[in-house]
Known about the structure:
Elements (H helix, E strand, L loop, with lengths): L4 H9 E4 L4 E5 L2 E4 L5 H10 L9 E4 L17 H17 L2 E3 L9 H7 L8 E4 L13 E4 L2 H10 L1 E5 L2 E8 L8 H12 L7 E6 L1 H4 L3 H9 L8 E4 L3 H7 L8 H14 L9 E6 L6 E3 L7 E3 L12 H14 L14 E4 L1 H4 L2 H11 L9 E4 L4 H9 L2 H8 L2 E2 L20 E4 L15 E4 L2 H10 L5 H5 L6
Parallel strand pairs: 3-4, 3-6, 4-5, 6-7, 9-10, 9-12, 10-11, 15-16, 15-18, 16-17, 18-19
Antiparallel strand pairs: 1-2, 2-8, 13-14
Bound molecules: 3-isopropylmalic acid (IPM) and iron/sulfur cluster.
Pathway: Amino-acid biosynthesis; L-leucine biosynthesis; L-leucine from 3-methyl-2-oxobutanoate: step 2/4
Subunit structure: Heterodimer of LeuC and LeuD.
EC number: 4.2.1.33
Amino acid sequence: MGRTLFTKVWDAHRVAALSVTRDQLFIALHLVHEVTSPQAFQALRERGLAVKYPQRTIATVDHIVPTLQQQIRPYDDSLAEEMLQALETNTREFGVRFLGLGSDHQGIVHIIGPENGLTQPGMTIACGDSHTSTHGALGAIAFGIGTSQVRDVLATQTLALERLKVRRIDVVGQRSPGVYAKDIVLRIIGTLGVKGGIGYAYEYGGPAIEDLSMEERMTVCNMSIEGGARIGYVNPDQTTFDYLRGRPFVPTGEAFDRAVHAWRDMASDTDAVYDDRVTIAIEGMAPQVTWGINPGQVVGIDQPLPQPDELPAEEREGALQAYRHMGFEPGRKLLGEPVDVAFIGSCTNGRLSDFRAAAEVLRGRRVAAGVRALAVPGSRRVKRQAEQEGLDRVFHDAGFAWREPGCSLCLAMNPDKLAGRQLCASSSNRNFIGRQGAPHGRTLLMSPAMVAAAAVSGSVADVRDFLRGERHD
Length: 473
Ligand SMILES: CC(C)[C@H](C(=O)O)[C@@H](O)C(=O)O
Ligand code: SF4
């Protein structure tokens, strides 16, 4: 009987069986950031413990960094300053490599892992951050952990974990121009629900997934957790190997060929048995936009917003709450709804291909009057590459602010925040109430190209009109 990648990777990293469903798992790579690590390091200090495998531990700073004048210290926000200082001290004292401010590799933790080749197929990867699922795009088993588990990994490089079930999600059909990986994953979450993945790892496959670039696969895997699945992955294939070749932490020469051989073996067998299977068809699908307060409250840009009484019973209360917060009415469309802020960035859509896609819309156009538009590269490397291509000029000329790398307005743990009831077209992954720094602020999740289209229109727009060249804003 064939095995899934999930099972192969899990079994290869099992140190001990703790019960029928619970194992002690070795963690190949531990990624650390400033928000969830201070107490974990403190716990080690109090017990007189060392970091077990410092060479398997990598830290960066992303959530709290200002995106304007990132390197001017101390930060105005004393809490932010404290977290950064703690990480600086902890990494120094415990001998952990810190890709911090001033490092060429600083950036959002889920962006710098793959782009440096730290993330590799067949690994187990943990990080005190729910969007660790992103790294599954390369065929790793990667998941978010809490601070007490960060402590456990620091001290032992292992974790006690419940084995997950595996749901195979086949995505089929040709996507239309103007439809991106973000639209695919929003559709998946809209279909299976924000709790649909609880207890599962999602294996994404099928022709429409195989067709995606590595960066696009990261966008899909990133949002697995928004669908309730702690882990999401794509089987490694030629796209994966081509992406990894030549990256800083990837073996070279013959060692690379050997690694590819081993990585290939990690992919799910063709006769692998899954706990569940779902097929999602994307033929003819329109760009997707969220209208509510969780990522599953999503519609096609050409669709009317749902009537609460037509929704499944368990979704009605949430829909009513969403309508109250957003101030939208059932039955109408989002197209033309005025936006105040446009944000392109985050670990979902803060990579080079995202800025390229948005620039395609922005070239020769201007952000509408009254819209605040922010472009925040996910990492130093993304910023540098984008600038080498002249993308920063495109954003500047269009009226976007071009910033330093960090999480920025995705979570607003830094000075980038919404104000009042502002409505933000955002390429990030969460639209929870208050998420972007203002209790009454409102978020519409969409692809970077859709954000660009909204920015220049001054209202929610259909990017397909821009790509067909029908709009001349
Ligand atoms: C700060 C961190 C714990 C959090 C997460 O786990 O995801 C953040 O990255 C987020 O996106 O909400
Ligand atoms: S970009 Fe947003 S989702 Fe990603 S790690 Fe930062 S805060 Fe979390």
